[in-house]
Amino acid sequence: MTIRLLDPVTIDRIAAGEVVERPASVVKELVENALDAGATRIEVAIEDGGAKLIRVIDDGAGMDADDLALAVERHATSKLPDGDLANIATLGFRGEALASIGSVARLTIETRPRGGAHGFAIRVDAGLKGAVQPSAWPAGARIEARDLFAATPARLKFLKTARAEAQAVADVLRRIALSRADVAFVLSGEGVTGFDWKRAEPQRRMAQVLGEDFIENALTLDAQREGVRLSGYAGLPTWHRASAAMQYMFVNGRPVRDRALAGALRAAYADHLPAGRHGAVALFIACDPHEVDVNVHPAKAEVRFRDAGLVRGLVIGAIREAIAGAGHRAANNASAALGMMARGPLDWRARGPRPSGDWDWRQSPVAPPGFAEAAQTAFESFAPSADARAQAGAPQADDIAAPLGAARAQVHETYIIAQTRDGMVIVDQHAAHERLVYEKLKRQRAEQGIARQLLLAPAVVDLDESAAARVIAAAPELEQLGLAVEAFGPGAVLVRETPALLGEADVQRLLRDVADTLAEDESVAGVARKLDHVLATFACHHSVRAGRRLRPEEMNALLREMEATPGSGQCNHGRPTYVELKLADIEKLFGRR
Questions:
Q1: pLDDT digits (tens, 9 = 90+) for 266-314
Q2: List of domains in the chain
Q3: What are the tens digits of pLDDT across the range 344-364?
Q4: What's the Cα-to-Cα distance from 488 to each of 243, 248, 491, 496, 507, rounded to whole Å?
Q5: What is the DSSP letter of 513?
Q6: Running DSSP on this structure, what letter comes out for residue 239?
Q7: 3-class DSSP state for residue 216?
Q8: How does DSSP classify residue 197?
Q9: Which helix (H) or strand (E) holds 317?
């Protein structure tokens, strides 16, 4: 087969396939160019998800006639003055964006340089470039890309629905806006919820993009190591999400979707989230441009660090330190739940005007019999089935002043009700104690090793042969955790010692759960994380079980220990250990406010 050179139009379209995957890619490139031009306001409008029209208007520096003519040529850029690819301080630098867009769409650019007498315009139709013409455009630039992929219908077939493409455009613009709070962003178009975000403080922009709930349930990050700085916010472990869509990561102001950073996030939250859930973060990494390669992906979506281990350690350490510093704090999700209840059928506001102040329910023709009797004598024959009060007298002032308050009752022998200065707290006693035991076991392992207790009679546990083999293979690691095991014939394991902190544990059930944990975590890299999973299994076995009646002093002791233990806002499985209800929220629920 004869080798031949491809024609320039085909070359441009092949190159465009690397940069322009969908309408959102076009928006990303054009908005990044506007930011590099010093824009303080960027407006984006789309039609048909961007397939029919993408319009980007900015108030940046603009271009003169010579620059405009070169801007639509391949590999023409103003952002590499010395050609040093190791020192990139701009978002765009390849010089491919406008040329690639012009090869797969009808591209129109109108621009005027600052201080210029008039503007200039150029059109590129499916790779065919027109001449530069005078224009009345006032300042900055106006770029329109119409009929995307019209010249390459095969690519057009792979686009998703207009609504899905519009949502992708919105997501790209939100990510960029999050990194540049000093710039105003406007989005409009069909199939997407538009926005008009003025220039704002970084925290305000964070609330605009991620919502006020994120700010209320996030931890501030600010860490530095060997010239690399990490700042931003990490959501509380109890404020987790079903996907990684709320993970926003930036390197030197550039939005990235980096697998190495995503792995660092999973490791940072590994000890706190349920399976299949993801933390919500907005991370900003700043470093010397020479320490990061942003040229490893055609769309500049991934980066490569010179010292990836340093960055990974910084991310994991900063997030874990923030979670530990938050102590027992958990996500404030009670207000939302109460709001849903207040909008339910019991809400008098949903049924009509509130009764007047002189209304007497006793005079109502539908009043139930017995309720008008003095002192509600209809209830005299009833008595509480159990006295679950934590204390009959007034609670101690010190307990009331504590973050989790003073224990007042135990209901359903599962939940502790505590009173605080301005509300109440409901604690899941099993989930809370599970976390406390887990943290104690981890501290023991790190400090002096987990204390072991010798069983009076070694226990023989029958397992299937594969499970027994996994346990025996992990025997050295399990011994570090206080569990001494050895083989005892086919499919049987002999347990001689257990962690002292577990007390009288159900050895049979404990070892079966450990075998299941080892099977589930077989693919996990690194022994440390696997051991943490085993410790979590131990903690679950020793914790205060739901259904156990606690004495008042036990309840208060549990609350005080939660306050002193980092991460006690969620159990080992990522579920919240307590819910706080403010008095104001309760009063709203009952129509008192």
A1: 889 887 887 778 899 999 999 998 888 876 666 666 788 889 899 999 9
A2: 8-197 (3.30.565.10), 202-325 (3.30.230.10), 382-593 (3.30.1370.100)
A3: 443 434 444 444 445 554 555
A4: 44, 51, 8, 11, 15
A5: H
A6: S
A7: helix
A8: E
A9: helix 308-325
